[in-house]
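Figure 2 data, in text form.
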Amino acid sequence: MTMRRRLCLLFVALGLLATACADSSTTTNQATATQPPRPQSDLVSSIGENFLEPPEIPTGDLSPELRENLDTLFANLRIGVDRASTEAIGASGDVRLAWLLTDLMRFTQTQVDDPISSAYTSLTGVNFRVDRDFGSPWRQATDALIAWDIPAPPDYLSWKRIPFEIVEPKWAPFFDDEDSAIDWRLYSWGGVLIDDRPRSEADEPCKRSCIPSLNDPELVDASEGDWYDDDRIIFGVEVDGEAVAFPKNMMEVHEMVNMTIGGRRLGIPY
């Protein structure tokens, strides 16, 4: 009898644990086995490694079969990761779907040989490294897609939002905002819950494991900012001629600023 490996879908903040019990020990995806390795590109990662040449990117809508597999995978996340639908996604050849796999990696205890990472490898040709420098499979997977500028699949947000709302249902209005200019490919979970407390409580420790945001901070002219040394790091945001500098030490504490710059209401993450 072969050993069964368990893929644990662990939503830390809520303590929700789902385990997929499908056997993942012997299957090799034929799409990966029959494709020759792609050469490396001129794109270089943050640790000096060259990414592979970008894969071919399909266009157009998803097939009904692919949509059905995506629906099955995401509808059953509270139970576990559906192996059959995950393998079908990996064998589809549509690299755009790799974005949805990386979204799931952020919420799971992803290993280099589990169904999600195996499906990602089938789509992209990226084999995950276990070296400390390379970080988690989620980091490696996301870095490659960003470097290649792989577009999101059609109706991306309809599936992406599901694991987020399992962790925190109060995030739903954020995803419902049709006027948002967010590139949803680059949006991920920071590991904490929403801070929806009254502002009068914003300076108190958050019992829900949230990080208090910086809301409409008081601003001073740059000439009055002598409390912050000139050689310290700042992050600058400019909108319609109005510029604001955010000291790194403040952003490390709050990680999120909500304020208006240049007449535009912004949520600025760090």
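Caption note: Residues 54 and 148 are 6 Å apart (CA to CA).
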